[in-house]
Write a structure and sequence with these properties.
Length: 289
C-alpha cells in the first residue's frame, strides 16, 4: 500500500516537474525561436538592395521619410570609394536631385550635399556652390563641407569671406576646415587673422588648415593642444574629448613633422598616462625625429 502511494507521489512530482519545464523553459524557448524566425523572414521579404542607383530612385520618387533616409544612406555609402559610380549618368542624376532638393525636406538636401562631397568629384562643385546661398543654415554648412571634400578651388573666395564674417560659428568653422582641405594659398592671409579669433575652435582649425598648406605660423597653437593641462581652461571638454583632440593633433604631426613639436612629443612619449597617446608619440619620434 505504501509502495503504491509512493509511486503515485513520484508520478505527481514528475508531472509537476514536466509541467514546470514546459511552462518556464520549453514554451518560452519555442516562442523565442519562432519570433526570431519570423523576424528574419520579414527582413528577407522587405530587404532592399542598397546600391547608389536604387537609393537615387528612392530619393526621386519615394515618400518624404523614404527620401531623406535614402539620402542619408547614400551619403554613408559614398564613403566607400569602391561603391562610388563613375558614370556621367549617375553624376548628372545626383546634380539634378540636389538642385531639385531646394524645394524638398532640408534633410534630403543636406545628405545629398554630403554624398556629393564624399565622392571627391569636382564636377559637383558648381552645384554645391549654389548651396552657399540657401536660407537654411544646415544646408549651407553641408554645402561648405561638400566643397571642401571635392576641393573646389572656385569656391575659395566665398569661403574666405565666410570664414571672417559675422555668420554662425559653425558655418565659419566649416569654411575654415574646407579651406584647409582645398589648400589654396590665397586663403593664408584670412587663416592667419583667425589665429587670434575669440572662438577656440576657429583658432585651432585655422592652425590645422595653415600647416596643411606648409605654413607653420599656427604651430604654437597646435603645441598647446598637445598639453593636457591646456584643456583645463575649457570646462565643457571631458577627458575623452581631450584624448581624441590630442590624438587628432598627433595624426597631423605625423604628416607634418615640424621640429618645434619634438619637445612635446618627448614629454608625451615618457610622461603621458594614456597608452595610445604615449605609443603614438613614440612612433612619431622614431619615424620623423
Amino acid at each position: 500500500m505504501n509502495d503504491s502511494l509512493d509511486n503515485k507521489e513520484d508520478i505527481n512530482n514528475s508531472s509537476r516537474v514536466y509541467s514546470l519545464f514546459y511552462s518556464f523553459f520549453l514554451i518560452p524557448l519555442m516562442i523565442t525561436i519562432f519570433g526570431v524566425l519570423f523576424f528574419f523572414l520579414f527582413e528577407i521579404l522587405t530587404y532592399e538592395e542598397q546600391d547608389p542607383q536604387h537609393l537615387l530612385n528612392n530619393i526621386k520618387s519615394g515618400s518624404l521619410t523614404k527620401r531623406w533616409q535614402s539620402a542619408y544612406e547614400l551619403s554613408n555609402l559614398m564613403k566607400d570609394p569602391d561603391k562610388i559610380p563613375v558614370s556621367d549618368l549617375f553624376t548628372n542624376q545626383m546634380i539634378s536631385m540636389y538642385e531639385k532638393s531646394i524645394y524638398d525636406d532640408n534633410r534630403v538636401r543636406i545628405y545629398l550635399a554630403l554624398a556629393m562631397g564624399q565622392t571627391a568629384n569636382p564636377k559637383f562643385g558648381s552645384s554645391l556652390i549654389k548651396g552657399l546661398d540657401d536660407e537654411n543654415l544646415e544646408n549651407r554648412i553641408a554645402a561648405i563641407k561638400g566643397l571642401g571634400m571635392v576641393k573646389f578651388s572656385t569656391s575659395v573666395d566665398k569661403l574666405n569671406n565666410i570664414s571672417i564674417s559675422d555668420s554662425d560659428i559653425q558655418e565659419r568653422l566649416a569654411a575654415v576646415i574646407s579651406l584647409g582641405e582645398i589648400g589654396d594659398k590665397s586663403s593664408e592671409v584670412y587663416l592667419l587673422s583667425l589665429l587670434e579669433d575669440e572662438e577656440p575652435n576657429i583658432r585651432w582649425d585655422s592652425a590645422i588648415a595653415l600647416i596643411k598648406m606648409g605654413n607653420i605660423s599656427g604651430v604654437y597653437i597646435l603645441e598647446k593642444l598637445l598639453k593636457r593641462n591646456y584643456y583645463k581652461n575649457y570646462s565643457n571638454i571631458d577627458e575623452n574629448e581631450v584624448n581624441n583632440s590630442m590624438l587628432t593633433v598627433l595624426a597631423l604631426v605625423s604628416k607634418y613633422p615640424v621640429n618645434s613639436f619634438k619637445d612635446e612629443l618627448e614629454f608625451l612619449a615618457t610622461k603621458e598616462e594614456n597608452i595610445k597617446i604615449r605609443e603614438f608619440s613614440m612612433k612619431i619620434l622614431s619615424e620623423h625625429y
